[in-house]
Amino acid sequence: MSIAINAVDLKKHYEVSGGMFRQPGLVKALDGASFTLEAGKTLAVVGESGCGKSTLARLVTMIETPTAGTLDIEGKPADSSSVDHRKAVQIVFQNPYSSLNPRHKIRTILEEPLRLNTDMSAQERTKRAAETMERVGLRPEHIERYPHMFSGGQRQRIAIARALMLNPRVLVLDEPVSALDLSIQAQVLNILADLQAELGLAYLFISHDLSVVKHIADDVMVMYLGKVVESGAAKDVFANPQHPYTKALLSATPNADPVAKKERIVLTGELPSPLNPPAGCAFNPRCAHASDQCRASAPRLDKLGDIEVACFHPVG
Amino acid sequence: MGLLDIRNLSVDFQTAGGLFRAVDGVDIQCERGEILSIVGESGSGKSVSMLAMMGLLPWTAKITAEKMEFDGKDLTKITKRERRKIIGKDMAMIFQEPISSLNPCFTVGFQLGESLKLHLGMNRAERKKRSIELLEMVGIPAPETRLSAFPHQLSGGMNQRVMIAMALSGDPKLLIADEPTTALDVTIQAQILDLLVSLQKEKEMALILITHDMGVVAETAERVQVQYAGQRVEEQHVTGLFTDPHHPYTSALLNALPERAVGRKLPSIPGVVPGQYDRPTGCLFAPRCAHVQDDCHGVVTRQSDALGNALCNHPLNAEVTA
């Protein structure tokens, strides 16, 4: 298996000015994430808002440069000036209502990446756009239409088609189905699965919906306040979560089965402000198993059986 | 006698392209102290039917109903002044985005006090005392200091708690929650749902939960009403709905859930919900239905109670209940 993306201890810190007389604060949006993404596999990143999953997407797509750590794309250090790297990694955003320019026709939207990054002729570009539209289940004769003439599901297909135009090896999917209705969500997930099987794409799938992640992911990485708290094969993590946060997240996800009775761990409190995270383990104020050790020092991500977990008192 | 009884409610919107029927002959009944869930995709008319009842729709909407009764009062006959006495007091509603339903220019305490003053005629000291009680009830820490906070100083979950406190200020008989947790994270969603259900039990009020999330329905509702393109297509008790759905739409929707998937592919529903110009004759779900037959394009019959009141000529799982 070829490795598409390898990230080691990736960090992104933002400085926020607190006003004229205040010390500037430091937001550790992403504070040390390491992972490898293999071709043809799906790595899901889950967590609540503010946990750094979208920052991770922006680093992997080279929209932002990391503060520290290394990011390798297909064995070479990521370089946003390299056409090869720009072609290799493409992104699909959450909301297809705002990620497509309403003033551009589908033709312009789909051909733009080719125009900027390749020297294809106009005819070749049109041919490629029509092929890609067919591949994602859109009718090629709709190429002269504007985005507002399509439904949400169709728009998300256009966004996927745009990402596919440059034959990428990695797709970063930032909550691709959370703005869609249930019946449409299933259609889009199926298209993504087909494309992966056909083209051997690697997916970095960012989501907060655990039932979708469980269905689509091979590996899963759970994040909390900029840090990875648990990672491993999806089936292991879902079957036997080790970190108390993963466990709580799983139990809080509503299960579409009214008969199944399960114990629900309701977390108290909310995500602390990333401007002044709690000392020690970031999860300790909300954790039922927190001890003095958790309040004093932060646990490292260590191997435990088949998965990795950052916790002093794993619960599995 | 039921608390809420709506029969044959239709809402038409005046648009540039003619009348658009958002709600098409919907019946809603709700008993005292019951949790009813209305579930459907966007455009199924679930929010609009509730807004019609509250009188919150713009003038472009034409509302017709055979019967619209709440707590013995006929909502179609009463004056606006009388309606304002009911809504916000006996009948309250919370919305999807707490940040946009609260006024950013006023403190939480002021906005809570407004309804206490209007509906209960409390004076300043009573209002303050009651506001603190209400915030405590919905689980907001340090309620005295929160009274002077503005909505932007609170998180999404806290704002939704404030909305709930506001809705509960008049001790309502009916609380309508329109997608109360869609904008929130899962762990916060669990907190808010638990809070709503425990308050519903404690106050013995009826709760109508509008949602598109089947998981939320399964975990909270007692009775479920499924809507599709403005019509009520099925109504059942929650366990029956999930084990033996009778309408093909309900069944297809449940099969499309990722957690019910067997293989790599999800059984998805082809096509999209019909819009203003491509509304089919006969059954509205027929163009997307896997069990469609010739007579589906003509008259559609409503099945009996035993078959989930399904609006379908060929209901599924008929032999199970027969």
How would you explain this protein's 3D organization?
The complex is a heterodimer of chains A (about 325) and B (about 325). Chain A is an alpha/beta fold and about 325 residues long. Chain A contains 10 helices and 12 strands. The longest helix of chain A has 18 residues, at about 180-200. The radius of gyration of chain A is 21 Å and the shape is globular. The relative contact order of chain A is 0.14. Chain B has about 325 residues and is of the alpha/beta class. In chain B, the strands form 2 sheets. Chain B has a 6-stranded mixed beta sheet with strand order 7-8-9-3-10-11, sandwiched between helices. The two termini of chain B are about 30 Å apart. At the A-B interface, α6, α7 and α9 of A face α8, α9, α10 and α11 of B. Chain B: One of its GO terms (molecular function) is ATP binding. Chain B: InterPro entries: AAA+_ATPase (IPR003593), ABC_Ni/Peptide_Import (IPR050388), ABC_transporter-like_ATP-bd (IPR003439), Oligopep_ABC_C (IPR013563), P-loop_NTPase (IPR027417). Chain B: Pfam families: ABC_tran, oligo_HPY. Chain B: Keywords: ATP-binding, Cell membrane, Membrane, Nucleotide-binding, Transport.
